[in-house]
């Protein structure tokens, strides 16, 4: 049963929050996750045993006259890393929104360890999934507390360990006040790559069985990029992960790459299988090779 009992001033808060953080899905999901009234609740908890995710013949429409996703099927086996690539507007972020039940599928189903995600309590679903968004919100607090936000009850030594795994230690040591350096709107502004590593450290602390990484489209210097790739490998260990990728360097080691175009899957396979196919993925790869740059973004049409 659907229950709506939120006070109007809270709705006003949600509205302002959504407006101010449209790009930040993590924040939005956290906000929605706190409000059980927004989505139908069931007491069935998601039980993640292995971490297998199945996207089965998904169809999704915001409006009946335009399909955003059509017949999208792929599987992420337990512990695998699957990357989704494709032109801007292909539907990559929509997949993540559906996985979090920000929206429900119009056709087909998403199963986690055999459970249709519509049949489980959304809180338990969101607790099982950690997301590293493109743009991370930093609070007006120290960098250390910003990382602890991943799991507020974590001890100092657990936070420190996450900092090391996220390859943030040298960076934090170089700050004027080290761990106590104030960040956020009123403090030090971090670069895109540094913010993504803060998000990775938060996710390491949260230790979710399933990980979603929405790679920032802005180009990074190769040192930041390498630090992010190393940190990603750390958190992906033993976790099922879905990566929305814009750079080839992020996808070459994936167990599977799903290539999307106009809401459909064009190809799927490993890097070498897709190169051998000589289709859409190979074309993206050759475009990148021609540009002679490690940092070229796959979808150059993106803002
Ligand atoms: P990018 O690489 O640019 O992030 P993407 O592959 O992630 O793109 P999506 O963000 O999933 O693409 O968008 C897929 C399509 O859905 C786009 O055509 C977009 O315009 C459309 N879309 C996204 N959000 C909405 C919405 N709230 N209402 C209607 N259409 C939407």
TrEMBL record:
Subcellular location(s) per record: Cell membrane
MF terms in GO: ABC-type transporter activity; ATP binding; ATP hydrolysis activity; ATPase-coupled lipid transmembrane transporter activity
Membrane-traversing stretches: 1-15
Keywords of the record: ATP-binding, Membrane, Nucleotide-binding, Transmembrane, Transmembrane helix, Transport
UniProt domain ABC transporter: residue ranges: 53-287
Signal peptide span: none
Source superkingdom: Bacteria
Membrane topology label: Multi-pass membrane protein
Main location class: membrane
Cellular component, GO, one term: plasma membrane
Record protein name field: Metal ABC transporter permease
């Amino acid at each position: 049963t659907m229950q709506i009992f939120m006070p109007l001033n809270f709705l006003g808060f949600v509205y302002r929050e959504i407006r101010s953080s449209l790009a930040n899905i993590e924040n939005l999901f956290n906000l929605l996750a706190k409000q059980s009234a927004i989505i139908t609740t069931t007491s069935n908890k998601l039980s993640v045993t292995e971490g297998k995710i199945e996207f089965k013949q998904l169809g999704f429409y915001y409006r009946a006259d335009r399909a955003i996703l059509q017949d999208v099927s792929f599987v992420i086996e337990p512990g695998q890393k699957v990357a989704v690539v494709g032109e801007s507007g292909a539907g990559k972020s929509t997949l993540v929104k559906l996985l979090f039940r920000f929206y429900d599928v119009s056709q087909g189903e998403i199963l986690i360890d055999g459970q249709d995600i519509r049949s489980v309590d959304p809180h338990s679903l969101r607790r099982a999934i950690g997301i590293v968004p493109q743009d991370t919100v930093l609070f007006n607090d120290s960098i250390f507390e910003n990382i602890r936000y991943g799991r507020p009850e974590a001890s100092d030594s657990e936070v420190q360990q996450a900092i090391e795994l996220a390859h943030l230690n040298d960076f934090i040591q170089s700050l004027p006040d080290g761990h106590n350096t104030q960040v956020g709107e009123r403090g030090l502004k971090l670069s895109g790559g540094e913010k993504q590593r803060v998000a990775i450290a938060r996710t390491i602390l949260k230790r979710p069985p399933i990980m979603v990484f929405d790679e920032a489209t802005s180009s990074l210097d190769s040192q930041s990029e390498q630090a992010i790739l190393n940190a990603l490998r750390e958190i992906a260990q033993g976790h099922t992960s879905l990566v929305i990728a814009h750079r080839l360097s992020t996808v070459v080691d994936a167990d599977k790459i799903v290539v999307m175009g106009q809401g459909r899957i064009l190809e799927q396979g490993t890097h070498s299988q897709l190169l051998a196919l000589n289709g859409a993925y190979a074309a993206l790869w050759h475009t990148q090779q021609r540009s002679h740059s490690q940092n070229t973004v796959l979808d150059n049409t993106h803002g």
